[in-house]
Specification:
single chain, alpha+beta, nine-stranded mixed beta sheet, five-stranded antiparallel beta sheet, 10 helices, 18 strands
């Protein structure tokens, strides 16, 4: 009964927040009834202990705690694998899964390529819509691929799961009517476009903040589309995620005190955050808002950091360390955003060719969004 309660609570939260896609009603049915999330969750999940490490939560030891992780909030993922102390695979959060499936505009009978099988849940959702034998999924981790294949078979879903490099797609099954990735990339692999038919959709998480849907051009030589929503995904396996803020900051005194000319509360605006992700992709920005203050932390994953605290009176204390002056760089990015008319997340788009990619705002012909 507890499982049923948690499923219902999640469904109600998605409804209250308006997260079920109106244009793709099949997504709600598939998530709640046809391909339930818990059938694809392994018996061991992982959670942060609140201090310094991830700890296991085993279904046979604590069924309720395990269920809480599977059916947490709409924006909560469930970690299924830890490598070298860091999450390396997860059941993606329900809200973003629903949004990305909606962006794919998937119709019955279409042949779909998925890269990043993970636990197999997203592949199962795709198969429930596309039909038998029409979904091909590629997973870089052979053990995860094998386990996902078993779960899909047990659920009666015919998906071809292959162990391999998702960035290379799966050429023997091409051309596909659409493709979807469940891990983040900074540079879109040309193989995804090459293996998708003209007019086909390609949906993928881009970097650390949003997901994009591209449509392949009629001549197959490019793909263009728009940012579809926000969400954070793990990068492809083997990508260096860089050092964390606390590791760069260390325990010593800052190198310098910084005078902040304008308020940093603007960094809570998701539109500005996304614009900064485009203009300064290596700067990572985090904010923590409490009743007493707003804390802002920046770092570049290598050797530079910045921190600031804004109290209730609006007074800002800011400090930096390392060779880069990150607060000044972010201010430059903010000015560029304002000069471009402060575009919102959904004003940004991307064009990809075999020679590279360009991110723009307003229209594809407006030129790259660069300072």
């Amino acid at each position: 009964m507890y499982l049923d309660d948690r499923q219902r609570e999640l469904a109600e939260a998605m409804e209250t927040q308006g997260r079920w896609p109106a244009d793709s009603p099949w997504v709600r049915r598939a998530i709640l009834d046809t391909v339930p999330r818990h059938q694809f969750a392994p018996d061991r999940l992982w959670t942060w202990d609140g201090h310094d490490q991830y700890v296991p939560v085993d279904r046979d030891r604590d069924q309720d705690a395990w269920t809480d992780l599977v059916y947490a909030g709409p924006e909560d993922s469930a970690i299924i694998q830890i490598l070298d102390g860091l999450p390396s695979s997860s059941l993606s959060c329900v809200a973003v899964v629903a949004d990305m499936l909606d962006s794919l505009i998937l119709e019955p009978g279409q042949r779909i390529l998925e890269v990043g099988t993970g636990a197999g849940w997203n592949a199962g959702l795709l198969a429930s819509r596309a039909g038998t034998g029409l979904v091909t999924s590629v997973e870089v981790d052979a053990d995860l691929a094998a386990a996902a294949g078993r779960r899909l078979a047990a659920a009666g879903l015919d998906v071809a799961v292959h162990a391999g490099d998702g960035n290379a797609g799966w050429p023997t099954g091409a051309p596909y009517d659409g493709a979807i990735a469940t891990y983040a990339v900074d540079q879109v692999p040309w193989a995804w476009i090459e293996q998708t038919r003209p007019g086909g959709r390609i949906v993928f998480p881009w970097g650390r903040l949003g997901h994009v849907a591209l449509t392949v051009a009629g001549d197959g030589k490019s793909a263009t589309g728009w940012v579809q929503g926000l969400g954070m995904f793990m990068p492809s396996r083997g990508v260096d995620q860089g050092r964390e803020y606390h590791a760069i900051r260390g325990d010593g005194p800052p190198d310098r005190t910084v005078r902040v000319e304008r308020g940093l509360r603007a960094l809570t605006d998701v539109n500005l955050l996304f614009a900064l992700r485009v203009s300064h992709p290596d700067i990572r920005i985090a904010t923590e808002d409490t009743k007493e203050s707003l804390a802002v932390r920046l770092h570049d994953g290598v050797s530079s950091w910045a921190g600031a605290v804004i109290d209730q009176a609006g007074t800002t204390a800011a400090y930096e360390g390392g060779p880069r002056r990150l607060l000044a760089e972010v201010e430059a990015g903010r000015r560029h955003w304002e000069e471009r008319g402060s575009p919102g997340v959904w004003d940004f788009g991307m064009t990809v060719t075999n020679d590279g990619q360009s991110v723009w705002s307003g229209a594809a012909g407006a030129g790259p969004y660069t300072p």
